Amino acid sequence: MPDAVTMDKIVSLARRRGFVFPSSEIYGGLGSSYDYGHYGVLLKENVKARWLEAMVRERDDIVALDSSIILHPRVWEVSGHVTGFHDPLVDCRFCKLRFRADQLDQAQCGAKPSKHPGGTDKCDLTEPRHFNLMFKTRIGPVEEAGLDAYLRPETAQGIFVNFKNVAQIARRKPPFGIAQIGKAFRNEITPGNFIFRTLEFEQMEMEYFVPPGEAAEWFRFWVEERLDWYLRLGIRRSHLRVREHEAEELAHYSSATSDIEYLYPIGWSELEGIAHRGDFDLQAHTEASGTKLEWVDSETGERYTPHVVEPAAGVNRSMLAFMIDAYDEEIVADRLRTVLRLHPQIAPVKVAVLPLIPRNEEIAGKARALYEELRHAVVAEYDDSGQIGRRYRRQDEIGTPYALTIDEQTLEDDTVTIRDRDSLAQERISISGARAFLLDRLAEDWKTPKSG
Ligand code: GAP
Q1: Which H/E stretch holds residue 97?
Q2: Whose CA is nearest to atom 12 of ligand 1?
Q3: What is d(CA 113, CA 435) in angstroms, rounded to the nearest whole number?
Q4: Does the N terminus or the C terminus of the chain have fewer Cβ atoms within 10 A?
Q5: What is the pTM of this model?
Q6: Among 135, 181, 317, 322, residue to substitute to test ligand 1 (most atoms within 8 Å of Cβ)
Q7: What is the pLDDT of residues 371-389, one digit of tens each?
Q8: How is 237-254 classified by DSSP, letter by letter?
Q9: CB of 87 closer than 6 A to ligand 1?
């Protein structure tokens, strides 16, 4: 069966089931801004937890950091963002819309019938102008006397300026890394394709500091490692690719970058970038601050400025890729079933507990007791509203891998039905063994049943 997913279907499911809402909707919404509801929060938390587990918890050579969103404004001058972090934009004098000059082929103009900007007789585009992507703010209560500052456009700089603190306290020798998850802000002017490109988003970035001669080797290592992370979490290999940047695409700090791209419904697009930043950042901050950001071997006295390899991923873009890759439709008993076949480790809710006849107090009591037991171990949901078929469909749409149903037979033999989201297979298991059974299942390797 061909892949049924479209961006519209994802947007509609995300809204219907409370993953993602347009921001400030009662005021007409705010372009490229979204709010995350209950299941969106749980899904994002799972993405971040899996990243931290792979990047920090399961490694000896990477430590965590949480730096401020507002840094000293000099950081952004020295990093090159004040002068170099911009998009080339063109305005259309006819339709008054603004477009990225390097992405005109992906945009639609405001004329009717709409074409790519510049494609109709009416289009009247200006020359490209540079537009800085950083959000400016002011520190201090008095507007005129305050200090201009920026909301960080990447979490990476907070890591570089803390290099000395962390290297000393963590007693790590290159190669070692510092990992950070946090919000970043960019004044994106182009339409966002849902949560693919937004004004504020979360990044998962790791700066890996290495001896200069080892950087090329570590760059290759991290491209493979990061690709593997998405595969382990169930994304189809056919929908992932690695693309090396052309020289003219490289960011001002990078000497080589490879993007891990996902085949979104809008086409192949960046999911994560792995950059070889050389010693650009540590050198620049050393020169400007007067603090030497270098590695010194206390025994041999050897000293050098490490080079940096940076895997930089987006939480929201990963979440979107996981949802798209998981989205499936099939006909079951003459009805369309929509299901998110998420990896169980990513799924917002791991198990639903469903009393078949909620009015039956004995059944409801047993179901409630089982739910109370399970929710100490995993994110569980108790649902007693509506027909059982509707309750299953609700859980399918949020990607819950297992549902446990308590019925009249439970009252006779203390067994429950466990239903598998993907195969729809049902089996009876003992209520006392349900927790162990579920935990075993959740720990098993999982591969998507989706083809392609
Ligand atoms: N420190 C390097 C850096 O920031 P980047 O490629 O600009 O590199 C890293 O950003 C990741 O952050 C991207 O691969 C993407 O997943 C995410 N990202 C960047 N801009 C975004 C935006 N406006 N909305 C959502 N995610 C974004």
Answers
A1: none
A2: 314
A3: 58
A4: N
A5: 0.94
A6: 317
A7: 999 999 999 999 999 999 9
A8: GGGEEEEEPPGGG--TT-
A9: no
